[in-house]
Design the sequence.
């Protein structure tokens, strides 16, 4: 900062007249000084960046995908590729379920109407092939009650184009066919994906229309003034709009799931609330202390800004763990979450300070009531008194809190994993209803067979016949179709016709194993294992949605330890650099994980078992949870929990560095952050709870689960269990082995008072080695820091 600027600051009303050292003393302080000096340029560039992002990123939704639950490197994925490239075979894009009001689909009027409908569908643009009961008479395409039949449609298009075309066909043909006894329902993979995408777009708008007004009202109550309440929107707009641009760029090089957009909006607004509460609160605190806007902004950036950076890194690391999984459904949430978190941090430490520097004391214009972000006398506040109660009986609260959270998590012991299918849609959806008819009205899963590809050699007819007969005897197998005929229970049930030629090419062949089994069940998994365990006449690759489910579960089980390891190690290292302790990172990992047990228990109790629909909204109960959802929600909720851990530890450490009194530092730290954390958690919960209105079950699940996890963490864990643990550990909280302590002194970051003792600044320097002692009040080995400070 220039001499003229400093002089001008000293002459402002309310500014201290005594000279002070204004030279930047740390990285974050230098950043704050730069922003103060160039506040209007920073804001102008920020506005231009948001406008550019809004223009370019507006094309994002047209490039998002609805799938991504399968492992692209698995045998099942290879089988799907071989079927498509070698045999031009793939699961039907569109399945029309025809129901008749007559006694049978073989009724003359129904047959005539069905053939006419088949001809119309075959003539539709983009339709490659149609297979219909009304033209083939195949018993496999006739329902068990005789009043339903199938028309299977393959489209020329793939991906988004196929979904768009499927949606158009559904809109044109679903419903009663005028002048006939038949009614058409439209299902199929492309149709379901299209319906899911459309539902998410509508739900996103609905969730925002509910969450934003409620959030704005509560922000007004929390911040106390109209101007301050608008600060989270500044961060949210930057984070969300530029994240849309980042995701758009990502879609140019890889697939991105449409589900991830919900995380951008909810996490963007949630972190905006967290970070703005922290920085505005510190700005107000420093402004009341120094009386100078520029100094207050610099100190807010150097202290609260430092906390925001560390918080953002921990959240991003938790989300980045999903990159170890090959399914682009999970990877997409990592892309979205990392981008949103990084941009929220940048907006919080660059854009928001520039706004505060321009506003000055006008941050308090439009006062409605006393702000809950203002810091009261540290020793007279409710959180200070609460921490005193907790610290008088720490074992009661740590044991009681642990028991309560374990109890809430017990339902997760009964979890039954599955995979997302059409039942993710609301039961009122016409596509979901047609899919349910397809599931219940037919003996076998004609449209979702297990496929066995023999790509490298063409076996003899005799060996292939023997193999097909063996497969047809496996439990729950209804029929095996192949180039040498169709078989059931080891008997040939249909002669070889020209249609069987589709099962072979010049150098290979494939078989279709039609079973009457729920694809995402243990029985389905056993059947895939049995098929893969049957000796084939040549190398076999097994595919189909059941095989994809098995492969997906296997790879997630293999990669999960890596994801957990990344989160644990990175979090430990970051918190060590942040605190200089090896005890506090371990405490954070244990308590943060424990805080998520209630969320996992609720997933099973509510969504797997179908409870509380009157509260969370209607959804289809399948008795299963998508395997990817607990992993996804763990990463998100763990990151947000660590967010609050960093908020709290930052102020506790600041006080401990000043006084060396662990108990008092915890009480003052909780008093200074308790209201911020609970306010931020309540607001964040509202943002996520808005997604409980979604018609897509996994979005509803994510909203309810993460809202619960955030509230539990901010109250039971952060308000009760953390101070109880830190009271029991005493000064031992801050212990590290001598080599690690020296390492932290060399490369760690710590806060120390500035020359006039008016506030902490971010510096990287060494601190004196603590001396060991035992805390008589806790009975635990601990350390007491030297009273000297870094100058």
Sequence:
């Amino acid at each position: 900062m220039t001499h003229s600027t400093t002089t001008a600051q000293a002459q402002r009303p309310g500014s201290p007249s005594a000279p002070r050292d204004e030279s930047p003393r740390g990285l974050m302080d230098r950043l704050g000084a730069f922003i103060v000096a160039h506040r209007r340029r920073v804001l102008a560039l920020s506005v231009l960046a948001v406008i550019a992002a809004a223009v370019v990123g507006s094309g994002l939704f047209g490039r998002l995908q609805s799938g991504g639950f399968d492992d692209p490197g698995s045998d099942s994925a290879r089988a799907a590729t071989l079927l498509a490239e070698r045999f031009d075979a793939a699961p039907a894009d569109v399945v029309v379920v025809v129901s008749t009001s007559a006694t049978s689909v073989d009724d003359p009027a129904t047959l005539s109407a069905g053939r006419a409908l088949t001809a119309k569908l075959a003539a539709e643009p983009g339709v490659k092939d149609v297979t219909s009961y009304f033209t083939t008479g195949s018993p496999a395409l006739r329902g068990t009650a005789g009043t339903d039949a199938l028309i299977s449609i393959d489209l020329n298009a793939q991906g988004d184009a196929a979904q768009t075309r499927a949606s158009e066909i559904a809109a044109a043909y679903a419903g009663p066919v005028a002048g006939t006894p038949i009614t058409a329902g439209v299902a199929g993979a492309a149709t379901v994906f299209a319906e899911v995408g459309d539902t998410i777009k509508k739900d996103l708008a609905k969730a925002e229309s509910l969450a934003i007004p409620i959030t704005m009202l509560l922000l007004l109550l929390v911040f106390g003034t109209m101007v301050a309440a608008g600060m989270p929107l500044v961060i949210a707009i930057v984070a969300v709009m530029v994240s849309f641009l980042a995701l758009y760029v990502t879609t140019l090089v890889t697939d991105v799931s449409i589900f991830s957009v919900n995380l951008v909006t909810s996490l963007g607004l949630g972190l905006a609330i967290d970070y703005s509460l922290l920085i505005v609160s510190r700005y107000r605190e420093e402004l009341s202390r120094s009386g100078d806007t520029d100094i207050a902004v610099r100190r807010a950036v150097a202290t609260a800004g430092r906390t925001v950076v560390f918080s953002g890194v921990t959240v991003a690391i938790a989300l980045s763990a999903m990159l170890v999984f090959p399914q682009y459904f999970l990877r997409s949430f990592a892309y979205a979450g990392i981008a949103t978190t990084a941009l929220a941090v940048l907006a919080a430490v660059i854009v928001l300070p520039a706004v505060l520097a321009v506003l000055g004391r006008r941050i308090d214009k439009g006062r409605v009531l006393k702000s809950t972000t203002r810091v009261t006398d540290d020793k007279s506040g409710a959180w200070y008194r609460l921490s005193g109660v907790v610290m008088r009986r720490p074992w009661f609260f740590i044991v009681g809190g642990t028991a309560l959270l374990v109890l809430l998590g017990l339902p997760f012991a009964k979890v039954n994993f599955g995979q997302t299918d059409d039942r993710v849609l609301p039961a009122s959806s016409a596509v979901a209803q047609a899919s349910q008819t397809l599931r219940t009205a037919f003996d076998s899963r004609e449209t979702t067979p297990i496929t066995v590809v023999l790509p490298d050699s063409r076996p003899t007819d005799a060996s292939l016949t023997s193999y097909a007969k063996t497969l047809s005897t496996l439990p729950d197998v209804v029929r095996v179709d192949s180039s040498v005929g169709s078989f059931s229970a080891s008997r040939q049930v249909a002669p070889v016709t020209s249609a069987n030629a589709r099962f072979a090419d010049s150098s290979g062949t494939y078989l279709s194993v039609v079973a009457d089994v729920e694809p995402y069940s243990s029985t389905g998994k056993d059947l895939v294992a049995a098929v893969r365990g049957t000796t084939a006449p040549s190398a076999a690759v097994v595919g189909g949605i059941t095989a994809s489910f098995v492969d997906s579960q296997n790879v997630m089980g293999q990669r999960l330890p890596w994801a957990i390891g990344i989160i644990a190690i990175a979090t430990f290292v970051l918190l060590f650099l942040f605190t200089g302790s090896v005890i506090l990172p371990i405490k954070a990992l244990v308590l943060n994980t424990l805080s998520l047990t209630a969320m996992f228990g609720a997933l099973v109790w509510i969504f797997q078992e179908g409870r509380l629909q009157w509260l969370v909204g209607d959804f289809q109960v399948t008795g299963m949870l998508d395997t990817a959802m607990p992993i996804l929600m763990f990463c998100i909720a763990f990151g947000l929990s660590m967010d609050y851990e960093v908020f709290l530890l930052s102020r506790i450490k600041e006080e401990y560095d000043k006084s060396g009194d662990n108990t008092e530092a915890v009480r003052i730290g909780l008093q200074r952050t308790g209201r911020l954390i609970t306010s931020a958690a309540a607001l964040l919960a509202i943002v996520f709870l808005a997604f409980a209105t979604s018609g897509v079950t996994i979005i509803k699940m994510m909203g309810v689960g993460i809202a619960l996890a955030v509230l539990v963490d901010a109250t039971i864990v952060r308000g009760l269990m953390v101070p109880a643990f830190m009271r029991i550990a005493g000064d031992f909280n801050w212990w590290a082995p001598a080599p690690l302590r020296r390492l932290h002194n060399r490369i760690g970051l710590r806060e120390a008072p500035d020359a006039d003792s008016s506030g902490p600044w971010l510096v990287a320097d060494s601190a004196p080695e603590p001396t060991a002692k035992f805390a008589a009040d806790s009975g635990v080995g601990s350390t007491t820091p030297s009273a000297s400070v870094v100058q």
About this structure: The longest strand covers residues 148-155. Confidence is low (pLDDT under 50) at residues 1-21, 751-791.
